Amino acid sequence: MHRYFRVLLACILLSFMLGSSCSVFGQQESDDKVVLFPAPMKYANWRASIGFSLLTTPEDITEEIRLRVPAGELVVLRKLNEQFNLSGRLTFQVLQNHIALGARWVHKQSEKIYFSVGDEMGYWFGFLPVAGFDSKAHGWINYLNLSLGVKLKKDLWLTIKTENSFNLFFKATNGKNVISSDKSLYNGEAFTIALEQPFFHKKHLTLGVTGYYNYFHWQTWSLFYLIERKIFYPQIKLGFIL
Amino acid sequence: MKLVVLVLTVTIVWSCQKKFDAPVPDVSKWESFNSPNALPLNKTTYRAIEGVYDLTGATEVFGNLTAVKSSYAIINNDTTWHVSFFCAKDISYFICEGRQLNGDILLNGYWRKMTSTETGIVRLTISAVNGGSLLLGQNPVITPGGVIIKGVFGNENEPPFDSLLLVYNRKLNASTSFKILAHRGGGRTSDLLPASENSIEMIERTAEFGSTGVEIDVRLTRDDSLVLYHDNNINLRETQKSGLVGPIENFSYAELSNYVRLIHGEKIPTLREALDAIIYQTALTTVYLDTKFNAPLQQLRDIQTEYLAKAATAGRNVEIFVGLPTQDQFDQFLLLPGYTNIPSLCELTVEDVRKINSDVWAPRWTLGTQNELVAEMHTEGRQVFVWTMDVPSYIDQYLDEGHFDGILTNYPSYVAYAHYIRP
């Protein structure tokens, strides 16, 4: 089996194990059922959501053809203490995948206002076995994030998150041919506005919109574009909180 | 809390999307170049400057080698020559006009990096003792080190102060039959060139970027006029706001001509206008008509015949190929009388190429170098162009390992660099 497939399968299985374990460890009902909202984890040890995202490719790269790139998304939080927790994200599309692990510190400013700061290290990899081509790419990206949470109602949480990313490493190859390895260090910003609320009965969901404004977006590595200026990538996200 | 709100606000404001552009800098302020005593260079001098030069002093900006090539366009009955310097680093180039002053050669122009919006002024001088006198002579023969170009460059419209030095190394690659085909008449809108894609203005300038031919996109209007336009719809990627929306095929040529302007303000040209420009205003030798409509091709064939005859009459050796990108156009082509004798370019399989006796097979680059099939095509007397190659390392690889007769690209300056520096 292809090495990347094995890594991907391992990541997905691990994520589902973590996700399913949330329902085991997170039985306490007192915590807010949120994953993006910067709420302290008072009772539960784990929180997670699983869902999907849909990225629209920008005009600068795909011109008239606007592709909607779907991806599965799993978000996991692990409590270290009430205000400090580990965070993990897995975005999977089989041919290109991304995993990020990090930590965040949350603070309750008032009954309505919360915020958090965090940092995650992301690794992405992709491969494109097209018509005899053997294109592969991988890279490391660091994400520094800041979130502002507003508890609008008892069961309605609004999160505004800004994320600055840094391209630490990029490499794309076709066979022995290295395509490029000198992406700029500062990659850009992403802004997310998300609502978290009850869905059916006790189930909760996350509904968000993210605008990436990046020099490079890992989900478009295979388009072989050379433009080195910031490009806007809109994305919608839907997650079911486990 | 205030700090969080402040950081969020600052980050959002800071990253508000800018409109990116790379306008050609104002190069009109070099006093020596503007001197009344500065005289135009002649064609012999422009041709003699051509060559591969070693570049020092700005290698981190442009690389250490440049291919220098001259080109011309005839605009309003005036022939304007340019000297272009094609560099590898970030797909950069300089485009200059030349004059002579007191035995020195002055080259005044701008530089640009295609991977970004970076651009600026460049001013170069070949003094009389550094080869200027030689180049201005009757039959200049240049030897390594025989021409030294000194100059300065700057950012955007700032006065240039950073120095650079170019030393003649050798002649350009002698293979002149290789085709450097510019996509959409010269380059895409997203490449921020000074003219719109598929415009007459772009066709007039494309040789400055290294092209020896063009691919242009042909569509049919509601009243059966053939025009140049790439996308299916009138949109803000290609045109200014006009109020018209929908496919080109829904509008008459008069409506398009009156109400629609391309992104830099040009009219959508007819195919005839484009071919007139190619034959009478440029030295381009290859035209790849990318057929974007699914309708009878007789009118396209008639225009091709007419302009091949015009080119021959004008003493121009121009190839014009009916491009067949999909099965729909291929099937329409089969309906043309005598289709096996019509100059065509087929993007489908080699079997399809043989069936219609295409002059050119044009496979997509992702299929690889396909050297065996390319060799078969050559044995049958056909050319092979590969499309659309933009990644420099792939272009290098295909030039090294492949046997193509031409490359279709959005970055003709890089293909020109990579081709001309080869021994």
Write the layout of secondary structure elements.
The complex is a heterodimer of chains A (242) and B (423).
Chain A: H1 3-25, E1 46-56, H2 59-62, E2 68-79, E3 84-92, E4 96-108, E5 113-128, E6 135-153, E7 156-174, E8 177-180, E9 186-198, E10 204-214, E11 231-241
Antiparallel strand pairs in A: 1-2, 1-11, 2-3, 3-4, 4-5, 5-6, 6-7, 7-8, 7-9, 9-10, 10-11
Chain B: H1 2-14, H2 31-34, E1 39-40, H3 43-49, E2 51-56, H4 59-62, E3 65-75, E4 78-87, E5 92-101, E6 104-113, E7 119-126, H5 132-135, E8 148-153, E9 162-170, E10 179-182, H6 200-205, E11 213-220, E12 226-228, E13 233-234, E14 246-247, H7 253-259, H8 271-281, E15 286-291, H9 298-313, E16 319-324, H10 327-334, E17 344-346, H11 350-356, E18 360-361, H12 371-379, E19 383-386, H13 392-401, E20 406-409, H14 412-420
Parallel strand pairs in B: 10-11, 10-20, 11-15, 15-16, 16-17, 17-18, 18-19, 19-20
Antiparallel strand pairs in B: 1-5, 2-3, 2-9, 3-4, 4-5, 5-6, 6-7, 7-8, 8-9, 11-12, 13-14
Helix pairs in contact in B: 8-9, 13-14
Provide a descriptive summary of the structure in words.
By secondary structure, chain A is mostly beta strands. Chain A has a single domain (3-241), classed as Lipocalin, CATH 2.40.128. In chain A, 11% of the residues lie in helices and 57% in strands. Chain A is built from two helices and eleven strands; from the N terminus they run αβαββββββββββ. In chain A, strands 1-2-3-4-5-6-7-9-10-11 form a ten-stranded antiparallel beta barrel. The longest helix of chain A has 23 residues, at 3-25. Chain B has 423 residues and is α/β, with parallel strands linked by helices. Chain B has two domains: 18-170, no CATH class; 179-420, Phosphatidylinositol (PI) phosphodiesterase (TIM Barrel, Alpha-Beta Barrel). Chain B is 27% helix and 27% strand. In chain B, the strands form three sheets. Chain B has an eight-stranded antiparallel β-barrel with strand order 2-3-4-5-6-7-8-9. An eight-stranded parallel β-barrel of chain B has the order 10-11-15-16-17-18-19-20, surrounded by six helices. A two-stranded antiparallel ribbon of chain B has the order 13-14. In chain B, a hairpin with a 5-residue loop joins strand 11 and strand 12 (226-228). In chain B, helix 8 (271-281) packs parallel to helix 9 and helix 13 packs across helix 14 (412-420). The termini of chain B are far apart. The mean pLDDT of chain B is 94. The A-B interface holds A 59-61, 63-64, 109, 113, 115, 130-133, 146, 148, 160, 162, 164, 174, 177-180, 188-189, 191, 213, 224, 226-230, 232 and B 1, 4-5, 7-8, 11-12, 14-15, 17-18, 20, 90-91, 114-117, 188, 190, 230-233, 235, 237, 366-368, 390-391, 393-394, 397, 411.
